[in-house]
Every structure is written in structure tokens, then in C-alpha cells.
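Progress report, Aim 2. The chain analyzed during this reporting quarter is listed below.
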Amino acid sequence: MDNNEARNTAKLQFPTSAQIQAKFELGVTLALFNWPALTLAVQSQWGGSESEAKREWFAGAICDLFATRPETDLEDVETVLLQVMFDEFEVNVEDDTAFEVAENIVSIRKKTLDGDFSQVDSLNEAWLARKGKPVAGTFKKVERTDEDDETDWDSDDCEEDEDDEGDTNMSEVTSTNIPREKPKPEVDEEGFTKVISKKR
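Predicted C-alpha cells for the chain:
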């Protein structure tokens, strides 16, 4: 009787599939939200004005990856993390943090399937403790930003050129600023010099 009761109690305590999935999704979200590279990209709006929404979509995309491809492994997750960071946020992550996040996500997947939510709870505590604090990391925006900077300078130059054109009309330059040559005297066939009238 005691053994049966213990088994029944264990069954009651083991989370349902819905609870496991909910914890896994929470864990993926927290793993991404605790990622300094992604946090900085969102804070800086490198993904545009919808950077926050993109981060939430990012978490959902990782969860869907496991749903559609249960065999998804560490390398698959890391590849997706780096690709999305580059495509959606224009960030080239040069350190090993993408690998660490992928490792966390794969670990969360295994543990939650076993009914172990301790890792998710730890990530939740870390997020609550660090939320709102500035982040830093050895990652940078892709070189496209340099081109943007050059474009900004070019646009400034264009604006200055436009301003210059507005201040000085090209027709005015032709008529007043460029000195005219004094007309050369014209001599006819008989050797007489023609008189050119200034007024017509």
C-alpha cells in the first residue's frame, strides 16, 4: 500500500505536458532576455522601433524549432541565434555567448522534459535581479553601420550643396560674378573700325 501511494503521489507531482511546455517556453524566453548581446540590441533599437517585439518573436521561433524538429541540437540552436541576430538586429556576435545561450536552451529542454524546472527558476531570478541594468559585451553591430555613417555625411554634404545653391543662383553667377571680356574692335573690308553701341 505504501509503495502504491508513493507511486500515485509521484504521478500527481510530476508536471503535465502543458506545464512542461510552458516552462520550456519561459526558459527559452529568459535565456534570450538574459543574453547581453540581445539586450543591448533591443535597448539600442538596432532592430528598429519594433526591437522589443522582435525579441519576443525570437523566443517563439526557437520554441517552434524544437516543436517542428525535435532532433534539434546545440549546433542548430547556435546557428539560428547567430543568424537571427545578424538578420534582424544587424549584430555580429563575436564572442562565445551565442554558444552559451544555445547550451542553456538545450539544457532547459532536457531538464523540463524530465520535470526539472530548477534551471528556469534560476534564470528567472537572474532576470529579475538584473532587469533594467545596463549591459555590455564583446559584440558589435555589423559593418553596415559604417556605410550608414558615410551616407549621413554624404547627405549632409548634399544638404550643404543644396543650401549653397539656394544662396547663389547659377544664372547670377553667369551674369555678375564672371567678368566679361571687353569686345574686340571689328574692322571691315575697307579698314574702317566699326563702332559698337552699348545700348540698343
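The radius of gyration is 35 Å. DSSP finds nine helices and two strands in the chain. These observations will guide the mutagenesis work planned for the next reporting period.
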